[in-house]
Every structure is written in structure tokens, then in C-alpha cells.
Amino acid sequence: MSQPIPVMLLPQSGYHLEELISKIELIFETFQDNLPDQGSSVLLKPNLVKTAPRHVAAQTDPEFMRAMILCCQNKGWKVTVGDSPAIGSARQVGKASGLTAVCDELKVDLITLEGATTHNIDGRTTSIASNIKKFDAVINCPKLKGHGQLYYTGAVKNLYGCVGGKRKVVRHITMGDKNEGQLFAQMLLDVATAVKPCLTIVDGIDAMAGRGPLNGKRVSENILVASTNPIALDWHLIHHLKGDISKDPVSNLIQNNPAYENDIKTVALTPKGLPKLGDFYFPGDEERKPISFH
């Protein structure tokens, strides 16, 4: 019998650098066996969906990313930050939130993920950005948000930014309406499998509630969530937030699929106590829109 997958939940109020570094170091220590060796090249993958100022909470917070970069550098890793925004380059989109300035200050490259390399996942084919393959490891740094098309966006959906260029839009249009979103959900899971991040840490301190990924409401949830398995993390976090998994296409798919049976067996690690529920909420049915944009 497989062992349950650990998901760590940590309370964290505000983006105070020393506190963030302490929490991230605790996460690194807990999941040390899954982390790369000193000297490895590591890609940090934030959420840079579109240009938005920091106070909107649409992007992974730049001060959270500052702490991530510093902790990774302390591990002796060669750090790069990268994403493939919906519109514009990573540097352009990162300017509005302050991430570009943080990367420049810490002398870390902020790159746009682009190109395409094909992967075979259980007989299905998918592609991810070709410049990902030059890194030894990927650490996934999503923002906790509700989503007007997918109900929730976290660990798995953030890895969709590892699909380069306009391919993301094409997949929305061609897959979104098929099988009640299940074809699109399977593609997201295949992309996550292809990227295979060694660790995911969710920035849920300031979250976006309701109809994200851009038009929701900034709220305080005051939580960091970490796991080596992005599927397990999302499954556990949606339940923690009292969400309805039947409304999330990805969770709906994995719930009854034997291929993901082990991914939904989780155990909570709460070394600082179980975080209290904050102000986060999922989008209502009236806020939902088709995945295909139609």
C-alpha cells in the first residue's frame, strides 16, 4: 500500500522577509530528500498571468519570490525565474507587480518560457516549453486564486504557464468545451506530469477570491502550502478551503480515475498549527465562464 503524500500547511500573515525565509527553510528541510544537489540549476515558476499591480494579488507576490530566491541561493543553487504570460514577456508582466525589480536587484534572470518539446504521458502527447529542459529542477510557486473557468487555480494550473506562447490560448479554444472540461483537465495534468516540479509552495498569504485569475477580489488567507506532488496539494487544499471538488474539472477527473488513486491520499503536516480559514472563497455558479472563452 502506498504511503499518503505529505502536504504542509503553515500560517503566515504578511510578507515579512525574515518570517518568509524561516517558513521556506522549514519547508526545504522537510522535503530535503526531493530537492536538487548544491550547484544545480533551478527554475522558479511563479504565476505571471498578465500585467497587474501587486495590490490586485493576481501574480505570485514579489516579496514571496524575493524570499524564495534568497533561500534557493542559500542552498547553493543557480536560480532563474521564468513563466510564459498570456500576453507579453515575463519581464514586461513582472514590472507591474515589482517582480522584475526584485530579480534585477538579486541578479537573477527573469525569462519567458518558450518553444515546445513533446512528451508522451501514458500514450497521450503534450508539449511544454523547450527551454525548461536546461534546468535540473523546477520549483512551482503558484498564487492561490479562484478561477472563473476552472473554479480554482493553484499548483497544477500554474504549471500551464510552462506551455510556451499562444499554445495556451489554442488549447483553451480547442479543448475547453469537450467532455465538460475533462479533456482540458487531462491536458493540465499531463503538463504537470511532464514538468514534474520537485516542490510546490503556494503563496496563499494574499489570495484572489472569486472570479480569478484576474477579476477576483484580493483577500487575506494567510497560508503557505507545500508538497512535492502538485496534484495532491490541490486536492488537499481545496478540501481545506471547504471547496466543492465536483465544480473543479481537475479534481473531478482525478476523483474517479484509478491512475490518480495514489495522488489523492494525503496527510497534513502542521508544525506551526493548522492555519485558520481566512477570507478566501470560490467563484459562484453565476461567475463561471466556458473554458473555451466562447
Please tag this protein with its features.
294 residues, alpha/beta, 10-stranded mixed β-sheet, two-stranded antiparallel ribbon, 30% helix, 24% strand
Structure overview:
- The chain is an alpha/beta fold and 294 residues long.
- 30% of the residues lie in helices and 24% in strands.
- The chain has helices at residues 17-30, 62-74, 90-97, 99-105, 155-158, 167-175, 182-195, 230-240, 249-255, and strands at residues 5-11, 41-46, 78-83, 109-112, 117-121, 124-128, 137-141, 143-147, 151-153, 199-209, 217-227, 266-269.
- Strands 1, 2, 3, 4, 7, 8, 9, 10, 11 and 12 form a 10-stranded mixed sheet that branches.
- A hairpin with a 2-residue loop joins strand 5 and strand 6.
- Helix 1 packs across helix 2 and helix 7 packs across helix 9 (249-255).
- The chain starts with a strand and ends in a 25-residue tail after the last strand.
- The mean pLDDT is 94.
